C-alpha cells in the first residue's frame, strides 16, 4: 500500500483539475501553490521542495502555476532558475492534444452515502467505510501514476452522457478504452449498466 495516503490524496487535486479541463475543453489549468501547510508545522521549505511540487503539478496536467511561497525559502538566483523552469514547462504543456485511454470513475454517491456530518468540519471522525473507500480510491490512483499510466477522473454525469463508439467511451475530445470502477458500496443502476 501507498505509505502516505493523505499526502497522495492532497496531491491528486491537480489530477481532478486537469480532468475537468479535458472534459470541458478548457485551454488552461491553473494551480495556486504555496508552503502554507509546511509553515503551519514549522517545516522549512527549500528549493527542491518547491521544484518537486511544481514538477508534480505539471505531471498531473497543470499548465499554469501561481506561486505564493514568498521571498524567504532560498536566494534570488534560485527563484530565477525556478521561474525559467516553470515558464518553459508551462509553455510546452499548452497547445497540444491530451491523449489517454483510461478513465477512473469518481464514486461520489458512495462518498455521500457514507458521509457523517461533523460539528467541526476539520474533524477526522469519518465513517470507517468512508475512510476505507477514500484510501482505496487514492491507492488506485497512485498505483496508476506509479506505473506511469495517464488517466482522467470521470464524474457520473459525464459517464451517463458519453456515447460509446468503436468500443471507446467518448467524453469531449477524449476517447477512453478502459473505465476503472474503484471500490464503492452505493451507485445508481444506470451507472453500472453503462459501465458493463
Report mean pLDDT, rounded to a whole number.
Answer: 84
Our Rg estimate from Cα atoms comes to 19 Å
N to C succession of SSEs:
HHEHHEHEHHEHEEEEH
What percent of residues adopt helix (DSSP H or I)?
40-55%
Helix run count: 9
Q: Largest sheet, if any? A: 3 strands, parallel
Shape: globular
SS class:
alpha/beta
> What is the strand tally?
8
Beta percentage is 5-15%
Indicate the low-confidence ranges by residue numbers.
1-6
Strand order within the widest sheet?
4-3-8
Distance between the termini: 28 Å
Question: What would you note in describing this structure?
Answer:
- This protein is an alpha/beta fold and 196 residues long.
- Helix content is 46%, strand content 14%.
- It contains nine helices and eight strands.
- The protein has helices at 5-11, 13-23, 36-40, 47-59, 76-92, 108-113, 128-146, 156-161, 189-195; strands at residues 30-33, 64-67, 102-105, 152-154, 164-165, 168-171, 174-176, 178-180.
- Strands 4-3-8 form a three-stranded parallel beta sheet. A three-stranded antiparallel beta sheet has the order 5-6-7.
- Strand 5 and strand 6 (168-171) form a beta hairpin.
- Helix 1 (5-11) packs across helix 7 and helix 4 (47-59) packs parallel to helix 5.
- The radius of gyration is 19 Å and the shape is globular.
- Mean pLDDT is 84; it is low at 1-6.
Amino acid at each position: 500500500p501507498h505509505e502516505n495516503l493523505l499526502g497522495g490524496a492532497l496531491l491528486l487535486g491537480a489530477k481532478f483539475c486537469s480532468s475537468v479541463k479535458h472534459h470541458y475543453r478548457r485551454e488552461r489549468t491553473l494551480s495556486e501553490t504555496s508552503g502554507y501547510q509546511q509553515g503551519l508545522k514549522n517545516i522549512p521549505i527549500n528549493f527542491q521542495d518547491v521544484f518537486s511540487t511544481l514538477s508534480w503539478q505539471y505531471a498531473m496536467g497543470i499548465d499554469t502555476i501561481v506561486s505564493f511561497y514568498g521571498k524567504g525559502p532560498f536566494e534570488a538566483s534560485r527563484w530565477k532558475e525556478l521561474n525559467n523552469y516553470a515558464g518553459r514547462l508551462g509553455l510546452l504543456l499548452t497547445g497540444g492534444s491530451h491523449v489517454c485511454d483510461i478513465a477512473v470513475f469518481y464514486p461520489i454517491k458512495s462518498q455521500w452515502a457514507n458521509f457523517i456530518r461533523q460539528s467541526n468540519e476539520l474533524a477526522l471522525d469519518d465513517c470507517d467505510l468512508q475512510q476505507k473507500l477514500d484510501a482505496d480510491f487514492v491507492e488506485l490512483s497512485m498505483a496508476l501514476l506509479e506505473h506511469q499510466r495517464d488517466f482522467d477522473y470521470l464524474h457520473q454525469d459525464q459517464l451517463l452522457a458519453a456515447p460509446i463508439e468503436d468500443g471507446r467511451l467518448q467524453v469531449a475530445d477524449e476517447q477512453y478504452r478502459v473505465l476503472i470502477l474503484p471500490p464503492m458500496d452505493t451507485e445508481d443502476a444506470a451507472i453500472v449498466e453503462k459501465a458493463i
